[in-house]
Structures are given as C-alpha cells and as structure tokens.
Design a protein that fits this description.
It is built from 26 helices and 26 strands. The chain is α+β, with helices and mostly antiparallel strands. A hairpin with a 4-residue loop joins β18 and β19.
Length: 831
C-alpha cells in the first residue's frame, strides 16, 4: 500500500475516533449538565411549593394568634365573660376566615368550647374522626404552658389534610400565665391548592396517603422523599415531560402526603438541540480541515518521500554503493537523505575491512577455547566449595538460628538415640516441655526484636543449669524442651525443674526495660510414661498444659489421669459436635423481677444440654469446650434464634410482652459479624428489637476497646438493649464504661452472696448501683437467694433481681404456664 493511501486511512481513522469520542463526551457531560440544571430548576419549583404551603399555614397561625391573645377570651377562660362565645364565634366569622375547626382547652386538657364547621354548607358538623390522635392531655398541641412555644403545621385525618395552629391563651400583652390552648384547623382544600398553583404558576396534584398506599410507584417515591433531607425528588416521564414530588409532614414530622408537579422538559430539549448543532458544525469543519491537510501533506512531504524511496530502491537493486540520493533542501527530509548518503559511505568503507575482520575473529575463537578449558577447572573448584556450603546448611537445618540451640529436628534425632541407649542399658530419662507464660505480651508491646533478646537471655540461663550430658533445644516461639539422661532419682528432675522456674523468674533487662514472667513445665519419664518419641513429647506437652491451667509458674508430672482426661475431652468434643447436628440443646428461662412494679419484666435464656448417652451435662463443663473448639459460634447462634422465636411466640399468644436476654460469648463477639447476625435473626423471627437484650462480659469488650465499641454501637442502633454481665469481676475502667453504649449493668452473684453479712460486698453492691444510675443505666442483681438480700437491693433502689429465691430457670412450657397464670390473674382483677 502506498504511503499517501496509508496517510489518508490514518487521518480518516483518527477523525472517526475523535468524532466518536466527541459525541460520547457531549452525551456524557453536556447533556448531563443540562439534566442537572433541569433537576435544580425542578427542585427550586418544589421549594416554591413548600414556601407557599408554609405561607398558608402561617396565615392561619397569624390570624388565630390574635384571637388567642385577646383579653376577652382570657376573661372567658377565667369564667368571667360567658357571653364571649355567642358574641364572637358565629357562622359568619367561620366562613369569612374559612376556618373548619376552632376549640378552646384548659391546661388540664379539658375542652371549654369549640366547633367543627363545614364552611361550604355553612353548618356545624361533628369533630373530624382521627383528631384524638393529635389532641389529648399532654399532647404536643395541648402543652401550651410556654407562650413563646407556638405550634403550627399539618395533621392527617380520614376526612383530609388539615392545617393546624395551637396558641397559648393569654392576655394581649402576653404577660399573664397561659390558661389553656386555642387549637384552630383549616382543611387543605381544592381552593387553597388552586391558590398555591396561582402563586407558583405550577400545575400541582395533591396525592393523599390512601392513594399512595395503593399505588406501588407512588409508595416507592413517597418512601424515598420521606427519607430525603430536602423532601424533594423528580423523575423523567419521557423526553418531553417530568414529574416533581415534595412531601408534606404532620406536626410530629411524620410524612402524610405529597404534591406532584408536572412540567415540560424544556431545558433538556434545549440541551439536546445544542449538542446536535455543535456536532454538525464540528463535522463540517473537520471534513474541510482533513481535505486541506491531505493537500498540504501531498505537496510538501509525500511527493519527496516517493522520490527518496525510488532512489533507495534502485541503489539496493544494483548494489551501486557509490551512488547517492538527492539531499537538496534544508528540512528534516533533506537531513534524512544526507544521513542515508553518510551510511552509504560508511558501508562502502566497511566492506573492504570485513574479510580482514573475519580472519581476526577466527583467531579470537581459538583463544576463547583455551579460556573455556580454564573455566572447567575453576568450576570443579566451585563444586568443592558447594559441598562445604551444603554441610553448613545441614547444620543450619538442625540448629536454631536465634539461640544456637538444637532445633526440633536435631532434638528428635538425639532423643531417638537416647531412647535406644536407655532401653539397652535399662536406664531412665526425662523430658521437660517448657513454655514461657504470657511471652506474647512482650512481642505485642515491644516488638519481636526485644522479644528475641529476651529469648536469647532465657536460653543462656537454661543452658547454664543443665548437666553436660543433658540436651536443651528450642522448638519454636517461646517453647523449649530438655532431655535429662541417666535419671537415677526423681528428685533430680524436680530439682532441675525448680531451677529452670527460678531462672525464668528473675527479671530480664533489655533496652532499659525490665521484664518479669514465669514458665510452665510438663515432665514425662521414660519408660514409665511412654516408650516412643511421639508418646514422650505428647505426654510432656499434656502435662505442661495442665501446669498452665494451674496458673503457670509451676511444673507438673504426667499422670495416666491426664491421658484419661484427654480421651474424655476428645469424647466430649465428639458428643458436642453430634449434639449440634441432633439438636440436643434446649433453653431454660430464669425470670427477672422489677422491684418497683413487682412483676416479671424479662427472662434470661440459659442453654442446657441433655445428651441421650451422657445425660444432662452442666454448662460449666461444655461451654468452655465449645469456646476452645469454636463450636460456640454455632451454639450461640442457635440460642439467639431460639430465644427470639420463643419471645415472639409468647407475644403472638397474647401474653404481656417481656424481654429476653441472651448471653454472647467472647468468641462470638470477636469473630462474628455479630450485628449482622442479630439483624438477620430479628428479620427471620419478626421479633421487635426492643424486646431483645444481649449480655456481654467485660473481657469480651476490653480485648479490643475500639472494635468492641463500634460493634456495640451497631447493635444498639437497632434498638436492642445491651447488658454488661458479671460486672466487677473483670477490669473495665470507669472511663471506658461511660463510652460503651450499655443500658444495663448486672452485679455478679459473688457480691450479692455476701449480703448482708459482708461489709465489703455491701459497699461494692451499693456503689455499683449508684454508679450505674449516675450513668443512666439500669441495674440487675444476680444470685438472690434469701429475703434479706432482696430487701437490701430494694432499699438501695436496684431495678431488677433474679435468683433461686424468686425462681429457678424454667423450661419454656413452665414459663408459659406462669405467663398464662399472670394473664388470668390480671383479667380477674380487671373484672
């Protein structure tokens, strides 16, 4: 293809791409700009509608405000001018002011006088149905004790939307105390709507609540503008017409209706026409510019390039290196021609030296062959060095890089040899499994560099204690293992373990920081406790964990009871997993009594496990196992769902609503999207969030205060109450306590148990009650077991109590019987 054709195609492709991009950009930005301008204009029109509504409501307010502050009306409310009503309130006054309701109320909510009027027919009518939802003692309209706090707005009645105005009844100077409230109403009638249309020059349609409820599109729009801060929205019906909507709210700020505005899309049509004119002009100019560019390129560049191409082709075909191309001119193309001539000169000069260079290269290859032979000898030397490095790597694989101690691989090899030696010679040896207590805190607080220095120091101390034939190894992290050979007496093992514990107990100083910690040691004896490497290490590890569970800082010998306990642990875990599948769990409910009201206001859901094989298993036995294995996540989710289901079932059966409290385990709180789980369960069971209470422990939140606070706030935002369980047994600071969105504090039964004998428990309990009340929280006391405890808690204004003195945990049928008895007792009392 010729160059000029390529240039023509390139210009055409670029122009088409550019035209497409221009069109796309104009559609994305220019048209969108006109649409945005159109939406802003619609929003301004809707704002004018809002202002017109407010002006009509304000006109009612200003008109009736003069009545409310009339001295004659004030005298009538004092009982001094009985002729005020017939003399001033008549049908002519109502019709002239288009007032559909005028009432006068005392501060106690008693109606002194008033009327409802049909101004079109000129007759009195009954008070509108539904007015009692807005006018009742203590309501927003009747609470007119403050003269400055006047109320005006709209209310929704079955007969229509009414503008309402509530004014305090006082004297003309507003100096005397209010005697009541004057409440006046005017329907948002078609005449008023026509007046608003005349004022705003807009076409409006009032869409009441009953029409919105039966029309799905209107329902969606109404929900959207109700949640929108501006209360406005608009939608395009087609390219010619749009609808705008604005919400009407009642005096309680509840959406009750909306106006629909219909307007032409003149701004959008103007934008579309402008874009079309712009693109047409752009295409015409682009075609003219392309023709001009093609002519200039042909005249100035393409013709000369074709001549240059012809000259180069002829030189190449004839191999005439002495010939030169035309390099006349002073532009880039003449420079290229000159460079081609220089290249031809260089090629011509180089051709004669090429054969000589080939000969020279042959000699160089011979020299290279000699060097290759030397490199082969050098490679053999390198291979010898690699063998040496391999031996070094083998050593690294058997020793810990940080402490220089043998690692797990080396220790296992040495232990196998020691076992074989002990078997042949009928000797004993001991395995000491060592784990530093709470060493992770050092790494978390000061970093691994400081932690490594501590490990080096501890390893040196351990090594200094052992005999020459003993073996110390580091298994990884903060775990060490010791092999004591040729054990003649058990006292030697205990003595060595004591020395290791004492060496660890001494402070370790790194970078001017002193670190204090303890160590737990598990001891296993060969051949009494095992004859294989695996058994010895496993049993020593088992004994170490027993030492840790004892509080750390001690050593523990392996016993067969530990092995039995481990097997029992495995058996119980298998049964627990099976219990989840077979749904062997059930909930008992312990009532909570409100001391002031003297009634049951809630229950705490307590999980129970009734195994067909093992019988009733205590929560104290299987809950820690569920926490350890992670099964608590499934069990806790089941308990939450079952408690919500039961609470909703009691309400559906017609019993008095009570709240249900569900305990959240620390693992549930840390590892699950607990807020999402609770929201899903509430949606599934249809339980109102106000009847659910979640109990958490102090430790669950204090592990990560920031994350815990965020999770609690997410839960509280759903309307769920949060209780802090076992308060006082953890380490919650008062500063953190006031940050948590806690509604209820539960006093642990360990404090209630000592009342009234223990002065300390009395002081702690009364202090917690006072603290909770000062922070706006309710207080629940657990473990109430006698009348003296109940009386003490009542005297100190504790809100709720629970315990065996009041009721043991009940099965769901037993609790339903109690709810039924309470309901029947209430019915008999009412009769």
């Amino acid at each position: 293809m010729k160059l000029r054709n390529k240039i023509l195609i390139a210009i055409s492709v670029v122009w088409v791409i550019f035209l497409g991009l221009t069109y796309t950009i104009s559609k994305l930005f220019l048209i969108q700009s006109f649409i945005k301008l159109e939406q802003q204009h619609t929003d301004q029109d809707l704002s004018r509608v809002d202002q017109a509504l407010d002006q009509n409501d304000y006109s009612l307010y200003t008109f009736t405000s003069d009545w409310a502050h009339w001295d004659d009306l004030y005298s009538y409310m004092q009982g001094k001018m009985p002729q005020f009503i017939p003399g001033n309130l008549n049908m002519t006054a109502y019709q002239n002011s288009t007032i559909n309701m005028m009432t006068f109320w005392t501060l106690k909510g008693e109606l002194r006088a008033g009327s409802a009027i049909d101004t079109d027919k000129g007759e009195l009518i009954p008070y509108p149905l539904g007015i009692e939802k807005y006018i009742y003692p203590g309501s927003l309209l009747l609470d007119r004790k403050d003269v400055k706090n006047e109320i005006r707005g709209y209310i929704l009645l079955p007969s229509g939307i009414m503008m309402i105005s509530a004014n305090s009844i006082t004297n003309g100077d507003k100096t005397l105390p209010p005697l009541g409230a004057m409440i006046t109403g005017r329907y948002l009638s078609p005449k008023i709507i026509q007046k608003i249309e005349d004022e705003t020059k807009l076409h409006l349609i009032l869409i009441p609540a009953n029409k919105i409820a039966t029309d799905s599109p209107f329902t969606k729009i109404f929900q959207m503008i109700s949640d929108n801060k501006t209360g406005h929205t608009s939608e395009n019906i087609d390219s010619q017409t749009l609808h705008g909507y604005t919400v009407i709210r009642d005096i309680n700020n509840k959406p009750i209706a909306m106006f629909q505005l219909t307007a032409p899309r003149s701004i959008y049509q103007t934008g579309v026409q402008a874009v079309r004119y712009y693109l047409f002009a752009f295409i015409v100019l682009g075609v003219a510019f392309s023709i001009l560019m093609m002519w200039l390129l042909r005249a100035l560049i393409v013709r000369r390039l074709e001549k240059l191409n012809q000259d180069v082709a002829e030189i190449s075909a004839t191999n005439a290196l002495s010939r030169r191309v035309d390099a006349s001119g002073k532009d880039e193309l003449s420079t290229v021609s000159a460079e081609i001539n220089k290249m031809l000169t260089i090629i011509e000069a180089t051709q004669g030296r090429l054969e000589q260079r080939v000969e020279e290269r042959t000699q160089e290859l011979k020299q290279t062959n000699i060097k290759l032979e030397e490199e082969i000898k050098e490679r053999k030397s390198v291979e010898q060095e690699l063998i040496i490095h391999k031996e070094h790597l083998i050593r690294l694989a058997h020793y810990d890089s940080l402490t220089g101690l043998p690692n797990r691989v080396q220790f296992n090899e040495m232990l196998n040899k020691a076992i074989n030696h002990a078997q042949r010679n009928h000797k004993k040896l001991a395995i000491l499994f060592i784990d530093l207590d709470r060493f992770k805190n050092i790494n978390d607080a000061f970093g691994h560099t400081v932690g490594d220095q501590v490990l080096k120091e501890i390893s040196k101390r351990f090594a200094s204690i052992l005999r020459g034939g003993d073996l110390l190894a580091r298994l990884g992290g903060d775990e060490f293992i010791v092999l004591l050979q040729d054990i003649t007496h058990a006292k030697l093992v205990s003595s060595t373990a004591e020395k290791l514990i004492q060496a660890c107990a001494k402070p370790v100083v790194v970078n001017n920081h002193e670190f204090f910690f303890t160590t737990s040691i598990g001891i296993c004896i060969f051949p009494d406790d095992g004859t294989s490497l695996e058994d010895l290490q496993s049993n020593a590890d088992m004994a170490m964990y027993r030492a840790k569970r004892s509080g750390g800082g001690v050593f523990q010998y392996f016993t067969q009871e530990m092995n039995l306990e481990a097997h029992e642990h495995v058996k119980l875990e298998a049964a627990l997993r099976k219990a989840i599948t077979n749904q062997e769990f059930l909930l008992h409910y312990q009532p909570k009594l409100a001391l002031v009201e003297g009634i049951m206001t809630g229950v705490e859901a307590l999980i129970r496990w009734e195994s067909p094989e093992l019988g009733m298993i205590s929560p104290a036995k299987f809950i820690p196992l569920a926490e350890e294995t992670g099964l608590i996540l499934q069990i806790g989710e089941w308990a939450l769902r079952e408690a919500c289901r039961a609470c909703k079932a009691w309400q559906d059966a017609g019993y008095r609503p009570i709240s249900v409290a569900v305990n959240l385990s620390p693992k549930q709180f840390r590892h699950q999207d607990i807020a999402g789980l609770v929201r899903s369960v509430l949606d599934e069971t249809k339980l109102n969030p106000q009847w659910l209470e979640l109990e958490i422990t102090e430790t669950a939140v204090m592990d990560n205060v920031s994350m815990g606070t965020d999770k609690l706030k997410d839960i509280q935002s759903m309307g769920i109450k949060i209780a802090m369980d076992d308060f006082g047994t953890g380490y919650t600071s008062i500063n953190y306590l006031k940050q948590f969105p806690i509604s209820v504090l539960k006093i642990d039964q360990s404090f209630v148990k000592g009342i009234p004998q223990s002065k300390d428990d009395i002081a702690i309990t009364s202090g917690v009650i006072a603290l909770a009340h000062s922070l706006g929280m309710k207080v629940v006391a657990e473990g109430v077991e006698n009348a003296e405890q109940l009386q003490f808690l009542a005297d100190h204004e504790c809100d709720m109590v629970q315990g065996y003195y009041l009721s043991r945990p009940l099965t769901e049928p037993k609790l339903v019987e109690q709810l039924r008895a309470e309901s029947e007792e209430t019915t008999e009392t009412t009769v």
